[in-house]
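Data follows
____________
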Amino acid sequence: MLKALIAALAVSLAIPAAAQPKADPAPLLLPQMQLHDPFIVADKATKTYYLFTRNETAMTGDRRLGTMVYTSKDLKHWTRPRVVFALPEGTWAKNGAWAPEVHPWKGKWYLFTTFHNEAAALPSPGTRKLYRRGTILAVADKVDGPYRVVRGGEPIVDKALMTLDGTLHVDAKGKPWLVYAHEWLQTTVGTIEAIPLNDDLSAAGKPRVLFRADEAPWARGQRQADGDTVFVTDGPEFHRTSTGTLVMLWSSYGERGYVQSIARSKSGSLDGPWEQLDPLVRRDSGHGMLFRAFDGRLMMVLHRPFTLALGKLYEMRDSGDRVEVVREATELDLEAYPTHPCVQPHTPTERKLEC
């Protein structure tokens, strides 16, 4: 009997099991992906798009504070995310992991991301509570990490300043700069500022103000409980057009919520002066960035809405002196959401708003 069972087992092992369906390596579509402040690297070497955002435990199962990445081959189908950077235990920061950006520099990949700690109070001249907030740096040998913290996780900008959303800008002479938003909590009117960097991406000078949020004619102040009206600056991101014009994407609040806007440097450099152009996308959409798809198209990714945000993709046009929205790429993000004027005036004298 035992010999018969062994023989039957041997036969069953020799017969291949019924083919099981293979798991989809990229099962997610953009409407299924939690993300805020999206940043996409289009890696030509691997023909892979890497979408970096704050780690969301619901997506990764990982409770650590840090950065996760989705990957895609076609901008429509995405892998489940994984954590590529986690803030080490004992670091000064306790919250945040906002606005991760990944940039190549001197043969390495650098992650810029913003953290804060409400228990680490800063001096305040008024009634608003000020606390430590700033962009820190991490480094990796590959675009998809893992990333390790640089300089113990200390912010690049003076820790006495409440700053966020730092981005790397390399000027025409090859010099690196950190450009960031100086938080309205500390300034009342938020600013976009720049600080020169050394080759190791540490601060090499004093900050300079590029522009104030209230310089944009579309920007609207937000009334606070203390009676102040504040103006927000978020998400600076640069692009140099086909004619050499330097433009900056940035976000604030307009008449109908969060706005994806654009500014242009009249000098072609950080020195400006910066002129504010008409917003690219309104109605609670923003913190976007530009990248070049593998088929050559200029694309923009942003999040919409501000709360419970999802990623949205737009095909863009480089018009030489600016960039413009061509259309929302609904074949990729599966949502039609008009970006051209579509709201009828409430009165004959009220100007038409954009959607």
About this structure: The chain has one domain: 24-354. The helical segments are 2-14, 57-60, 184-187, 330-333. The radius of gyration is 23 Å. Residues 4-15, 339-355 have pLDDT under 50 and may be disordered.
